[in-house]
Design brief:
3 domains, 46% helix, Arc Repressor Mutant, subunit A, two-stranded antiparallel sheet, 5-stranded parallel sheet, Helicase, Ruva Protein, domain 3
Length: 333
């Protein structure tokens, strides 16, 4: 994250386009806002557009505006977001959701700084800085012919890749404290202490929803707390690991069913009458599950064993049996 902050401060002083990459909930909009706030455009508007929230026709009108009569319901001229962002910054979130047709028009704005309202032939110029964000690998989208390569390179002048929360667990205590202070003030509460077991559970959790998920759980804990402590029981079962696994639901069946059972229920139970083919599938899936959990736990075997619900010595033996101690580089395949 320190590297992210350094790049943010450095690129803010320029007019270069910025492409922010990262999973949902890592804080891409916050970084975009920081780039704007630290730039010479800070006194201009900061306009946000969620490209994934609108259909293609509505998004085009939202970005570029329209004239009266351009389509049914267009009863008056309307200014678009690029016009509104003149002398400021426009943040295009989920840029990967745009259609190839709309991407051509976005490319023109980036290259020429001009566009036309929907239904109009008049060219409008906009001096706005473009910051885009994506929760998908845009180069992969380019290879799959879902995103224009020329637009990708035009956006990707300065990339900022925000790591997921599970890759920066040391930030969790500071984030918890920050959100406690924020929601205490917002709700007139006084939850100022954190139970060690609660902090340990939050540190061990893999956070698929990243910082946004953490923020949600802290707000819930502040609202539900009866005293001044964020206790373990205030956190959801998915974080505390207290939700029991009903192993009796794992049944024999075809390969797909068995694979799904192993993935869903971890390594706790394998059907006793599995065939050789089933056993091979179980071994392969089990190896991949262990590899993925080790990656999420940064190689900490004690934490990974807890996540998998098995003894650490058992995990160590499986790592050795599957050759994962020699596969730390290059992935498990």
């Amino acid at each position: 994250m320190q590297g992210v902050y350094r790049i943010t401060r450095r690129v803010a002083a320029s007019n270069a386009s910025v492409l922010i990459l990262g999973e949902t909930g890592v804080g891409k909009e916050l970084i975009a806002g920081a780039v704007h706030s630290l730039s010479h455009r800070r006194n201009g508007p900061f306009v946000r557009v969620n490209c994934g929230a609108l259909s293609e026709s509505l998004l085009e009108s939202e970005l570029f505006g329209h004239v009266r009569g351009a389509y049914t319901g267009a009863v008056a001229n309307r200014e678009g977001r690029f016009e509104a962002a003149h002398n400021g910054t426009i943040f295009l979130d989920e840029i990967n959701s745009t259609s190839l047709t709309l991407q051509v028009k976005l490319l023109r704005v980036l290259q020429e700084g001009e566009f036309q309202r929907v239904g109009d032939t008049t060219t409008i110029r906009s001096d706005s800085r473009v910051i885009a964000a994506s929760n998908r690998d845009l180069m992969e989208e380019v290879r799959n012919e879902k995103f224009r390569e020329d637009l990708y390179w035009r956006l990707n002048v300065v990339p900022i890749d925000i790591p997921p929360l599970r890759r920066r667990r040391e930030d969790i205590p500071s984030l918890v404290t920050f959100f406690l202070d924020y929601y205490n003030e917002l709700n007139d509460r006084y939850v100022v202490h954190i139970e060690p077991a609660a902090l340990e559970a939050m540190t061990d959790y893999h956070w698929p929803g990243n910082v946004r998920e953490l923020q949600n759980y802290i707000e819930r804990a502040v609202v539900m707390a009866e005293g001044d402590e964020l206790a373990l029981q205030l956190l959801p079962e998915v974080v505390t690991g207290s939700q029991p696994v009903e192993t009796d639901q794992v049944v024999t069946g075809d390969v797909a069913s068995l694979t799904a059972a192993v993935v869903q229920h971890g390594l706790r139970k394998v059907p006793p009458d599995a065939t050789d083919v089933h056993s091979q599938i179980v071994d392969r899936v089990e190896r991949e599950v262990i590899w993925q959990v080790l990656q999420e736990c940064d190689g900490v075997q004690t934490r990974a064993a807890t996540r998998l619900g098995i003894n650490r010595n058992t995990l160590h033996k499986k790592i050795k049996d599957y050759g994962l101690d020699q596969a730390e580089e290059g992935g498990a395949h």
